[in-house]
Write a structure and sequence with these properties.
By secondary structure, the chain is an alpha+beta fold. It has a domain of about 60 residues. It is built from two helices and three strands. The chain has a three-stranded antiparallel β-sheet with strand order 1-2-3. A hairpin with a 2-residue loop joins β1 and β2. The relative contact order is 0.15.
Length: about 100
């Protein structure tokens, strides 16, 4: 058995000033095909009749699974530091608030 751990790869990430602000999203629609997942991050504003898609992200199924694992790890770290994230349900509001699997046809 190899006792030498694999070296950690480092990568430089470029973040342009206009991207550094970030984009707020409070709703996501998720679709998929055999070769990709499509994540449409949108913003719903109070009193507006429709949501506006702010960013569309396309990912391979493998990378979506990696994202899921990374999110789970980071949620665990967040909750260890700041406390459990409580989901507050409001009457008439979807439990997933848009972060839901696509409907089966």
């Amino acid at each position: 058995m190899n006792q030498n751990p694999r070296p950690v790869r480092s990568m430089n990430i470029e973040l342009k000033p206009e991207q550094a602000e970030g984009t707020y999203s409070n709703f996501v629609l998720i679709g998929h095909a055999p070769s990709e997942f499509i994540l449409d991050f949108a913003r719903i504003l109070h009193g507006q009749p429709k949501a506006r898609v702010m960013s569309r992200i396309l990912m391979t199924p493998e990378n979506v699974v990696k994202l899921k694992k990374t999110l789970e790890q980071n949620i665990k770290k967040f909750e260890e530091r700041y406390g459990k994230i409580e989901l507050k349900e409001k009457p008439g509001e979807a439990k997933e608030m848009g972060f839901a699997p696509p409907e089966q046809s």
